[in-house]
Each structure stands twice: as C-alpha cells, then as structure tokens.
C-alpha cells in the first residue's frame, strides 16, 4: 500500500467525522467492504462492489446538481469493480460509518438491471426502480425521521432483495437526503451510494420501466425544498413512486 500524502493524513480525521458514507454491505450476515474515498490512495485500489466516488469530505450532491451525472452514484462516480452476491429475499444492511443526528430526512433504495456487466455499464443509461423508502415518522420541528432509526441501529439500514427477482447483475442505489438546511433554495443534501449486486437463484421477475436518476428530483419539489424547523403535519416523499417488489423490513408510520 502506498503511503497517504501527509497533508491528507492530517485532514482525514476531520473530513471523515462529517456526514457519512457506506463502509460495508452485510448480506445474510456476510460482510462486504464498501467504498471509502481514501482508498484511491492505495496501490492497487481495492476491488469493491461499492462504486468509487470523489467524496473524501463525505460531501453531498446539492439540488442544483440533481440533473447531472453526480446524482446517480455520487460525485464523479466510477463503476464498482466487484460484486456483492445475494439472492431473492436476502436481507441487505447498508452500514454507514457515521450519521449526524441533525441530518434528518428520507432514505431510499433503488435497483437497476445492468443488462450485462455492472463493472462497465454506462451509469447514465441505468433505469432505476424504487423498491424501499422511509421518511417522516411523527412530530415536527424537526420531528422523528427514519434517519433517527438508522442512528439507533448502529448507523445501519436494512432492506430486502425483491423476493422473485430474476438472476442477473444489478446496481442498488442507496440514498439519504438530509433536510436540515432544506428550508432554503439549494439547501437539501443528497448522499447517493451505489453497489453492484450479483443476484442468484431462480426468480422470474424482470424489471421493466424505471427512471434515470437524473430525473428523480427537482430543486422545487416539496420534499426537497422543505422547512424541517417548522410546524408540519405531513411530508411529501420525493422521487419516483415506490414499487412494491418485496416485503419491506421497517414498520413505519406512513405505511
């Protein structure tokens, strides 16, 4: 492993302490390493199913970038060069390194078939289906959100691979949108994370339709431009409609 630049070493603790990223993916109890931006300084760069992204500062994608390629799998994302193996019905846990309690907001899981090799697929061609989501639970100003549950669960979020999904190669896009600054224009913060999955088994459900990530959200959407620190009694979940491909793992107040 090549040594990290000295200036980078000095700055890493403060950078990594902010916001967060997915350090690992647990499938049916088996740990798989996710992508961390400091891995780019290793030689060779490790093979990870998590897509490489230029987010060393654990930064976010702002609404003025929602129509650009950065919203797909994070800033300057490059294909993951490995796969996580799973099967229909597998429990999948996305393990974040940290998540601030102030960063309340919705959590989403999308899936897109690669129709070939996910390590080489053009990310701008991926058509995603939203198969899991969570958001506001109760209260207001700021209220209780599924991100609070994520923090209570050791900064982790568990979902389920669709129960009859056909075998093949897929990208799962896991995302948190933080709303603590969303009361002002361009204040919402999106943290998309992409992971390559190789689905095994004998499922028969083929995904059709889907939406490109660059068309998910608009800066003016009510779930994006949203004053968390106000009295509210509802929240409009942004993005494409949820498609119930699998039983969800979380009991939530809006269900």
TrEMBL record:
Please give the InterPro entries that the UniProt record associates with this protein: AA9, AA9_LPMO
Q: List cellular component terms (GO).
A: extracellular region
Location in the cell reads: Secreted
Auxiliary Activity family 9 catalytic domain residues are 19-233
One matching Pfam family: AA9
The Swiss-Prot or TrEMBL record lists the needed cofactor(s) as:
Cu(2+)
Signal sequence: where?
1-18
| CDD domains the UniProt entry points to | LPMO_AA9
Q: What is this protein called?
A: Endoglucanase IV
């Amino acid at each position: 492993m090549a040594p990290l630049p000295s200036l980078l070493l000095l700055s890493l603790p403060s950078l990594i302490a902010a916001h967060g990223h997915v350090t690992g993916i647990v499938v049916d109890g088996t740990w798989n390493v996710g992508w961390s931006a400091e891995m780019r300084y290793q030689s060779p760069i490790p093979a990870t199913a998590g897509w490489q992204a230029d987010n060393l500062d654990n930064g976010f994608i702002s609404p003025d970038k929602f129509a650009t390629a950065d919203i797909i799998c994070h800033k300057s994302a490059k294909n993951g060069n490995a796969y996580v193996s799973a099967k229909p019905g597998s429990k999948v846990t996305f393990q974040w390194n940290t998540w601030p309690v102030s960063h309340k907001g919705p959590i989403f899981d999308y899936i897109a078939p690669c129709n070939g090799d996910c390590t080489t697929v053009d990310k701008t061609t991926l058509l995603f289906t939203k198969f899991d989501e969570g958001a506001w639970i109760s209260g207001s100003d700021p209220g209780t959100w599924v991100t609070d549950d994520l923090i209570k669960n050791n900064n982790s979020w568990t979902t389920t691979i669709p129960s009859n999904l056909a075998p093949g190669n897929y990208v799962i896009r896991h995302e948190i949108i933080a709303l603590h600054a969303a009361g002002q224009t361009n204040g919402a913060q999106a943290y998309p994370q992409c992971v390559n999955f190789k689905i095994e088994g004998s499922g028969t459900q083929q995904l059709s339709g889907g939406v490109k990530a660059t068309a998910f959200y608009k800066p003016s959407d009510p779930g994006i431009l949203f004053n968390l620190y106000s009295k509210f009694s509802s929240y409009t979940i942004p993005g494409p409609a949820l498609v119930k491909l699998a039983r969800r793992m979380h009991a939530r107040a809006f269900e």
